[in-house]
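Supplementary Methods, section 5.1.

A reviewer requested that the exact input to the structure prediction be made available. We therefore reproduce it here, unchanged from the version used in the analyses.
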Amino acid sequence: MSSVYEQPAIALVAHIATALDGAVVGVALACIAVNSILNLRTTSSALKKIKASPSVTVSDLRSLLSSDDDTNSADNKLVIVRGVVEPTSAATLLSHVTNEAAVIVQRTQLCIYNQWRGFFGWNTDFMSLVARHWKEQEASSLRTVPFILVDGVKQPKCDYLTVNLDGSTHSLPLTTVYHNLQPVHASAYTFFQAFFGHEYPVGVVDEEKILPVGKEITAVGLVRLKDGNPEVMASKDLPFFLSHMSKDEMVAELDFKTRVLWWSSIVIGTFATGILGYAILRNWNRWQLWKQQKRIQQQTAIEAEAMETEAEGSGSLPEEQLCVICLLRQRRSAFLPCGHLVCCPKCAMSVEREMSPKCPVCRQMVSASVRIFDS
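The structure derived from this sequence is encoded token-by-token as follows.
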């Protein structure tokens, strides 16, 4: 059974979408095309930067930064480093599930709520009585300890790269070690919650993700020497910071995304241009037609006023020559097809505008009126 509000809502959306001969749809597509172009510029810039960035190991990083003569460039050099995660001290975090050592532990608890249209939430729409509304409430905790990247060798780690997570909003290469959905069993209180239209829990999802010690990851960011030791920070212009992928995999992903954005911007932009061009042309012709009709109406009004002035200035006339409607102006318009000459031009026009125009004398249907001139 369809909703009683569904068809009017669809009709309203269709009317808005096709308003002004599709101009609304054209503007919406143009906005999508502009957004695609902006994303294309950002992605292309990130692709060029990652391609031009050197990919080095942790042991070669210090010599790379020291060999740079430009101090400013050395403090903000974009580098891709592949290394193994190690804590800066003996203190590490432990997974609550596997007791595995980690430097980042993220625990998430997601509560799923359901809501029925209860007794006080019912209305005349039948679909709303059985429609369910899902809601989710998420509680997340993130714990980190300072960590570094080192080469994956068993000898003492004399060369390392400090990872600075301050100000980073990038996703982290975390590994899921626990994921469990626990349904919440209904009770008598749950029945009353549903009956009165309140939310009630139906399930709880517990999840734990960690960045384990000894995992090999890639850091893409701005590297500088701080107190003689290299440190990497996230770059806001890049979509990656810490990742599972290598440089080649990042380049391949960004290249594919660039191609998709390029063709989508061309296709959507073409459609937007065509629709907007059609809408502009149709509305321009419509405006020109409106101007022409308005000009004709003004000209007709001026001619009628001139005829009225002429008739009023012709002096006193015999009663048999006056209009049978207004009794002020001379009879000069004959009705067709009856041919009765009984009205002035102004009153004849008024008769023609009626829903069922009829001759005032014979009551025959009037199709038009003709101006009669004296020879």
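Confidence is low (pLDDT under 50) at residues 1-5, 69-74, 117-134. These observations are discussed further in the main text.
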